[in-house]
Structure formats: C-alpha cells, structure tokens
Amino acid sequence: xxxxxxxxxxxxxAGMLQASGRSDQRRRSLSAALLALxxxxxxxxxxxxxxxxxxxxxxxxxxxxxxxxxxGFAGQISIGHAGLIAAGAYVVGIMSREWQAPFWxxxxxxxxxxxxxGAAFGVPSLRLRGLYLAVSTLALYFIVIYAGGEYEAWxxxxxxxxxxxxxxxxxxxxxxxxxxxxxxxxxxxxxxxCINLLRSRTGRAWGxxxxxxxxxxxxxxxxxxxxxxxFVISSAITAVAxxxxxxxxNFVSAEAFSLYLSIQYVAMIIIGGMGSLPGAILGxxxxxxxxxxxxxxxxxxxxxxxxxxxxxxxxxxxxxxVTIAFLLFEPRGLIGIWxxxxxxxSLRRRKAKPLSGPPQ
Amino acid sequence: xxxxVNMLVLSSIYALISCGYVxxxxxxRVMNLAQGELMMLGAYLLLTTASLFHxxxxxxxxxxxxxxxxxxxxxxxxxxxxxxxxxxxxAVLATIxxxxxxxxxxxxxxxxxxxxxxxxLGLNSTAIALPGGARISTFAAALVIxxxxxxAALFGFLxxxxxxxRMRAAGQNPLLAAQRGINLHAIYALTWALSxxxxxxxxxxxxxxxxxTSNLAVLGLKxxxxxxxxxxDSLLGTLIGxxxVAAAEILSIQYVDPLLSDVMxxxxxxxxxxxxxxxxxxxxxxxxxx
Lengths: 360, 290
What we know:
Order of helices and strands of chain B: HHHHHEEHHHHHHHH
Mean pLDDT of chain A: 80
Number of strands of chain A: 4
Strand content of chain B: under 5%
Structural class of chain A: mainly alpha
Oligomer: heterodimer
Helix content of chain A: over 70%
Distance between the termini of chain B: 42 Å
Number of helices of chain A: 15
Shape of chain A: globular
C-alpha cells in the first residue's frame, strides 16, 4: 500500500528489508488475501452488534481516508470535517424528504454538494496557510450546521429528519448484513481511489505542495489548482460518507454532528499516523472502538453500576488523554508502532544468516 | 440603548477571553484551542473555593484566580513544553486534545448540571438602571470593568514592564531573545499563566452572572473570531474585533434570526478572511510565518 515517501520510511530498517526478497512479497499478498477472506466470513459468524461496529468502522474509515488525503498528503489542515459529513447527510435527508429521491440520485448529489462546498472553502486556502485555514474550515462547519438546523426548524422536524432505507428493485435494504457489505465495498473503493490518486500526477503534486510550497511552484506545479483539487476530492468523498451514514442510521439531525466529531476525525489521522493510508484505517478503527473498549473495561470493575452515569465523561477524558499520549510519545501513530514491530521481527529472523558475505 | 449595553457586555466577554488567544499566539505562534475549557475550569474552581470559603467572596475569588493561574503554568510545563520543536499543527492538536481531556475531567468532578457559584458566596445579581432606560446586571457591569482594567494592565505590562518587554522579544525572535539571556521557558510559562488567568476571570464572571454548565466552553470558540478579526497578534485589534463581532451578533439576534447567534461570529470571520486575512490590526507578514 502507498505511503508518503518520508525519510523515516525509506531509510528505516523495515523499509529496506521489505523491498528485498520475493518471500516478503508472497507473504504480503497472502496476508492481504487472509484479511479479505476474514472480512467476507466475518458477517456470517459475528453477532449483530459486532456487525454494526464493523459498519461504523468502515464509515469512519471513509471519512478518515478523505481527511488523510487533505491533511496527511496535501498538507491542508481542516477541522470542519464534521460539517462536510453533515452536509452529505442533509442532502440525502432533504432530497428524500422533499422529493422522495432514490439513492442513485441522492448519493451523486451529495458528492456534488460536497465538491462545491469543498471548492468554496478551498478558495481561502489559496491565501491562507496553516492555522488560518483551520479556522476557516471551522467556520464552514458552523455554517453547515446552522443551515441544517434552520431547515429542520423551517420544516418542523424538531427532532431530526427521518429517512427511509434505500430500495433496489422494490427491495428495501435495511438489514445490518446488507449494510456491512455496502459499507465495506464503499471503504475498499475509497481506499483504491486514494491509492490511485496518490500514484498519479495529482498525488505527487500534493506531496510537493505539502513539503514546500515555494519549491513546488518553482517546479511548475499549479498550486491553486491542486490545492483546490485536494479540497474538492476530499470533500466529495466525505459528503458521500455522510450520505451513507444517513441511510445506515435512517436519521439525520444536527446533534449527530457535533464539533467533537470533527475532532475525532482529526484524532483518527493523528493516532493512525500522518501520511499513511493504512494509518488512516487503523486510526478510524481505534477511535471507533475506543468508547466500547472503555465501556467494557469499566463494566469489569467492581460495582460498575456506580460509574454508568460518568461513562460519557470518562470516555471524553480518556480519549483526550490517549490523543495527547500519541502526540507526545508516538507522533508517527499506530502505523509507526507497527513498522517498528515489523522491523524488530524481520531483523531477528535475519540475524541467524548473514545478509552478505561469501556463499555458504 | 439596551442594545448598546448588551453589545458592550458581550464584547467585553469576547475581549476578555480572546486576549488569551492573542497573548499565546504572539509569544509562541500557537493557537490555544483549549482556551474555552480553561475558562470553564476557572469557573468550576470558583465553585469549589466558594464552598470552601463560605460567605467570603473576596477570598474565594482570589483563591480561584490563583489556582487557575497555577493550572495555566501546569499546562505549559506538563504538555506544551514538550511540544516545542514539533510542528505548529501538532501543538494546536495538543491543545484540542487537552480541551477534550479537561472537559471530560470537569464533568467527572463537578457534574454537568447547571450550577450557581454565586449562591454559596452570598452574591446576588441585581439589575442596575442606567440612564436611557437600559439595565445591566451587577456582574455584567463588573465584567465590563474587569475587562477594561485587564486590558489597561496588559498594555502597561507589555509596554513598560521588564517581563513584558521580554515577552515581546521572545515573540519577535525566540532565537535572538534566548541569545540575550531571556529564559524562554519562563516567558512561555508566564504567557500561559496570564492567558489562563484572564480566561478564568471571564469564566468566573460569566458563571456568576448566568450560571455554570458544561456548555460554557463553546463561548471560548465563539470568542476566537474576535481575536482573528482584530488581528491575532494585536491586543488593541482584539478589543475592536470583539466590538465588531459582538455588535454583529446582537444586531442579528435582534433584527434577523436568533438562531444566527452561533454562526454570526464565524460569518464575520469569513468575511474578514476573504478581505483582509491578517485582521484589522495584525501584521501582514504573520500570514506567511504560520
């Protein structure tokens, strides 16, 4: 899988050793096949709850992959991600409420709406950098949420918008089983799209812009164009994730898209590891499962009932603590830990037979 | 007339919160997104000291201010100091994470219910009639006065104080400042202490005025546009930015739509970012430095 070519990656022992040997290649395709098999078998053996968790992870992965494209690869900070997810969800909500539009109309519309919003809010990025940009994406978030709330108030949906499950050939798709595969397919498609994008001219231009904008410009890269592209593509993917979220939950409400959600997405790419697509998925998995892990950990404590009311706050505090810990002690994230482990393992194996020297 | 008083009070709230943003940004180029939570921490600390020093408001308020200033120093020593040398983005993300952590801890310790720190202190808010038929509560009036005093003190401190001079030097060029024997860590710690202190004072006064819930931190975020509209590195600009944002917000609530109040600061901010991204009084070079 594609990773940003960072010095740490290229020169680390793991990186060099990975490149060598056909057995590594074979082992990697074997593990990919095993992973795919596991993902396909999983819904047949997992409980409905586990299935729902997995679906949430897939949804979060789509969102974190798109944020990773923007922040981790193109170097543009955004803390308005939840606003774009909300925008996608609202497009579905409004279109299916007002015009009973089917999903094959609402999903592309969500993507277009996301792309337009992305373009509109990419424009400040042409003049702004770093923190200033982050603030303007924050403004985007507040505006989308306001518009959504305004629509709800106007139509009298005080508690939120109900959405019917999408129909294919007269059949309603509402089972968790079906959604597992839909979201899995969507996540895989997003991943493939990201890999291909990053291997293309666009991806290389983003890398150049992220590393040093002035040099990129001197190399003849059209900065404005590629920055806007980063916003447009990332926002379109995010809005589609929001649309899928709306269909999966059958419900849209401004409360579901708190600023905390934006922060969670930012945390996903930090915890996963900046500049790595597998990292984005790892981070999404970690952040999605984290509250459930905390819950079950607290459930194991003696007299757990006492803490039930404090669960929410505990989640919050623990989540903040974990994010800080990653920032302080492992800035390369989960993928960094994984690479180090890999390095240790492959080094140990090679210790037995020398890498070079006369043939035995 | 009432509108003008409301604007003045709201702009004082924004100004008192956002001078913390400006101080930290000027000295270390970090945007402290945990300012809202630190402000709330001050208010909750007042709640605790209020029950400790029953019926002794001066002592309680002083103790809460001292405690929250200490918290500001701790934030620097335990967290932000370790982020020096990392990218600015990482430092900002650290403040976001700190905000989440603080929010969770505060709900754990003090619960999320609405509480009134004024009650155990025996302080009651009464409305003062002003000429022109307007009314203002005692705490709101105190807020305006405290804000004016804080800004006067900050101006004096930064212009004439020895440490204020050092702070400005550290903000302008950390390397040269360190070469001249200025203790950068002490300066940064002092900055965090000052900005937490002003934020906490704002939090306390708001809590005294209108009660304390865990939603108070959102106000911190809404104060941010005020700092940016005025220019992130200018205290005077922040005062004027707060006035503009507060005026826009109050007027839109009055004449357009109350729901707009949460978005209005950000709309003003966007307009500013499009026209003059470095703010009214900010320096233009700032834009390229971040």
